[in-house]
Each structure stands twice: as structure tokens, then as C-alpha cells.
């Protein structure tokens, strides 16, 4: 029995019941079974955390099993990406398996089924078969080929395997019940001819097993005890069990399928097929575009594995589908980055500020704390000089008392630096403010301990020294879809809800300490948000992604609730 007392989810209850009924804990085994037809997304993260979490909880092995039975859609690129993502999340699989490892065993078992009169070769077109399927309220019609002799079935099936027949000419079907109330039990297809090379078995096979025939038998081969899948497979459970009945030997472990609800995230789509459409239509720049809800997209965006896992743990698993607000995911990202991201100064919308009483050639290196949340993060030196950039939004000629930033005649503190006072400003011919002239109080330097340094002023601004600043490309992301549930509209394609302004590129001016930052390194740009270095960065030009803003909308939503 598990040691800790955290409340159990319903899957854990099922396992606890099995253990209480005498099933040995040492024999528990789980699997995560992705189809390598795309990159993993945030929904998969739920399934990964569930399965690998159970492995950790019960000290049981978890297999990574690629469900690779459809060579038309599967590729090695996806296998590699999936492995990388699971490792990045911090999980270790016990063994790496492939459904394609079992093609021979599955074939041999299929022959056994034929010999027992439980499977037959159907030679109708898919349209004919569909027309005989019936409806949930109307029984189906038996195929005219249903009563082929065993010998004939064996010969045809072997011919299928040997490439004698073309795609669509014959299929192998399980002989179950064309009047079952479960449509999936109406003689489901077990094999089809597919003359496509497979990314692992190459051209060894030209027949490929269907999902239902493959999945339970693969679980059985691997001695998986609890085969967890999403709710849409609930009606498949009867078939899963029927297929197992045909092969299970009494002394061996019989896997059981249990279902949990798919996780959906607001303002995005979590379906590999739809994500592929975004990639193929050039709406995003690849599977790892930072706007994508893929694990690789979130990694590139600057999310941490810890944040993703604590989000997944918070939402837990459910028996019914719902949409989780993406703001909750962002909340977890912010929480973690607040603890680990070094603070730096960066200005994204610059306005020149000149300190008129500061000596022309002087420069100072001010001491700045790297992270007030983490003393061990230490401090660094920040260059200060006569000409600085501040954010345009931080200055107004005139403003009311609630404007705690800089206005003419007003004072603010420059973070880690001095108190300044705005004296005048210069405008271009269109009336836009292009420069602010200030004076500074030389005795007010932060941390100097002087009386002036302790003087309180209302506002504190971030800034950079112009001559020391590094120019970088900064990519500002917004939600990829304008609608909370882009997939939920029956009349419109999700593509119609794509946000045309989901990416804005600006030039940022950043303090020089980040000059050697490497891709994936994360920072807090003070007062602006969390940012990380993108892989598009070069030696001469850093590129940053905005991971999340600083503002915590989710906490506000929760406070109201
Ligand atoms: P997609 O529709 O995105 O292709 P899938 O279910 O076909 O999803 P698989 O590669 O077959 O993708 O999924 C691997 C495992 O992850 C399965 O057990 C599946 O049930 C689970 N899974 C997939 N999507 C989600 C989701 N949104 N929430 C929770 N689990 C999911
Ligand atoms: Mg699938």
C-alpha cells in the first residue's frame, strides 16, 4: 500500500482495491502509449504524470510504448521528440517498447483466431461493410464472407501478408456479433493491407494490425496491469476484453483497461491532428513554436517541467471532460519562475532619459541583487551613465496623483540607482516625446546607507544605460486563439479563431550581464515579465521569448470566486 496520505484519485482507488484483494504490488506495471504521429502536448502531460506518477507511487515499472501501427502517419522524428519530452519532464521509463515489436506474435495469434473460427477474411469494399454495420438501434447484417471455411481464410490471410493483394481488397475481421448493442463489437477489423514502409519494420509487413487488436495484446505481452486511457476508449473496453479472452493464459497477468477524462486547455487545441494543421498551414513556425501547447513549444517558451507538473497535479484527473483555463497553467509557471529566474533590467519600448547633472564620461557599476526570493542567487554589477532608456509608458508630462511613475517636476527612484527628478522634455515635430531631461541626487544611491538613500519616493522604474545596453530581438506572444474553446464550434473550423496578433516582435535594450546567455536560460525582466533565450539566438544577436507577463490574472480570478 502506498505510504503517503494524500487523497487518492479514482484510478489509485481502483489499484488500492486490487491490492486489498490480494494482487501483489510487486507485479504492478503501467505504460504510456503515444502514437508517434506528432509531438506531445499538454494533454499528454496529464497522461504521462498519471502513469509515471503511479510508477513512482507504487515502485512499479512504466513502459514507454510507441503505438506504431499506422505507417502512413508515423515517423522516427516523432519518436525522438516524444522521448526527449518525457525525459525533459523528468520521468524515466522502464523499457522502451514498440507495438511493431509484436507484429509477428499478433500475426500468429490472428491465425489462431482464424483456426478457432473467431476471425475471417472479408472481401467487400469498405462502403459495403459500412452499409452493413447498422446503427446503435438497428442490428447489422452479416457479411456474405462471414462463413468462409477456415482453410480459405488461412490461405487468404497468408496472401494478404505476402503482398498478393492490393490495399482494400481484403481485410481480416473478428467474428463477434453483428447485432451487438456496442457497434465496436460488430465484427471489427483486425488487419488491413497497407503497402507502406514502416519507420521500424520497413517493408517486412504489408498488413498492419488495428488499434483495438494491438493495444490490449501489447499490454498483455508486457504484463501491464492497469492500462489507462482516455474516455473515448470506454466503449472499446468490451472489445479489449474480448480480444484478451482469445489469448490470455490462466496463470498470466490479465491487464485491465480503465478510462479517465481527456484534459483540454482554454484558448488552444490539444489534438495532434489539429496541431499538425497549424504547422502545415504555416500558422505557427513548427511543432515547437512557443505559442503551441506542445511540450516542446512550452519548453521553448520558457515553461519549466516543475511548473507543468504542478499544474497537472493541481487539476488532477477526472471522470468527465472539461476545459481548464490556461491562466492556471500560467499561474504555475509564474510561481516557479519567481523562485528561480534572475532579475534583470530590460527596456522594450525605449524613451531616452538624460541626467543633466551627471558627468559626461562617468560610468558607475551599481550593485544589484539577482533574486530577492533567493539570496543564494547572489548579485551582479549594473552599469549606470548619463544617458539611459526608460519605458515610454513610464513618463508623462502631466499626470494625476495616482501615476506613480515619472512626470515633469516629479521624482522617482531608478532601481538600484539614484532618485531623479524630471525637469523638461523634448518633442519631435509630431508632438511625440523623444527625450526627458532629469537631474539626479548624487547622495541618494541605493544601498549607500546615507539619509538620502533611505528617502522614500513613490515610484521605482527600471532602466538601462544606453551605451552599455545590448540590443536583442524580443518576441511577445499572446494567445494563439481568440476564443476560449476554438474547437467547440460546430459551424466553424478552429482555424477561424486564430489570433492574428499572437506574435509581436520588438527590439529590446538589455543590461549587458546577459551577453553570454544560452538558449532556454530564463530571466525576469523587472516589471515586464518572464523571458527566456530562444534557440534562434546567435552570437551577434540574442532572441528572447516572453514566457508570461508578471501580472497574475489567475489569482485575481480565484480571489473573486
Ligand atoms: P491526439 O488526439 O492528440 O492525437 P491521442 O489520444 O490520439 O491524442 P496518443 O498518442 O494516442 O494521442 O496518446 C497517448 C496517451 O495520451 C493515450 O493514453 C491518450 O489517452 C493520452 N492522451 C492524449 N491526449 C490526452 C489529453 N488531452 N488528456 C489526457 N490524456 C491524453
Ligand atoms: Mg491517437
* Biggest sheet features: 7 strands, mixed
Strand order of the largest sheet: 12-27-28-29-25-26-13
Number of helical segments with 4 or more residues: 13
Shape: elongated
- Annotation, overall tally of beta strands: 29
Helix-strand category? alpha/beta
CATH topology of the largest domain: Rossmann fold
- Full CATH superfamily name of the largest domain: HUPs
The structural domain count equals: 3
Which stretches of 5+ consecutive residues score pLDDT under 50?
A: none
Bound molecules: adenosine-5'-triphosphate, magnesium ion
* CATH-scheme architecture of the largest domain: 3-Layer(aba) Sandwich
Radius of gyration: 31 Å
CATH class of the largest domain: Alpha Beta
Please outline what is shown here.
By secondary structure, the protein is an alpha/beta fold.
Features:
561 residues; alpha/beta; Rossmann fold; Ribosomal Protein L25, Chain P; 3 domains; 7-stranded mixed beta sheet; 13 helices; 26% helix; binds adenosine-5'-triphosphate; binds magnesium ion
Describe this structure in words.
There is one protein chain. It is elongated, with a radius of gyration of 31 Å. It is of the alpha/beta class and 561 residues long. 39% of the residues are buried. Helix 3 (76-89) links the parallel strand 2 and strand 3 (96-98). The longest helix has 16 residues, at 42-57. Helix 2 (42-57) packs across helix 11, helix 7 packs across helix 8 and helix 11 (305-315) crosses helix 12. The protein is built from 13 helices and 29 strands. The strands form eight sheets. The chain has a seven-stranded mixed beta sheet with strand order 12-27-28-29-25-26-13, with helices on one face. Strands 23-20-21-22-14-17-24 form a seven-stranded mixed beta sheet, with no helix packed on it. Strands 4-5-6-7 form a four-stranded antiparallel beta sheet. It has three domains: 5-260, HUPs (Rossmann fold); 272-342 and 472-560, Ribosomal Protein L25, Chain P (Beta Barrel), CATH 2.40.240.10; 351-462, Ribosomal Protein L25, Chain P. The structure holds adenosine-5'-triphosphate (ATP) and magnesium ion.
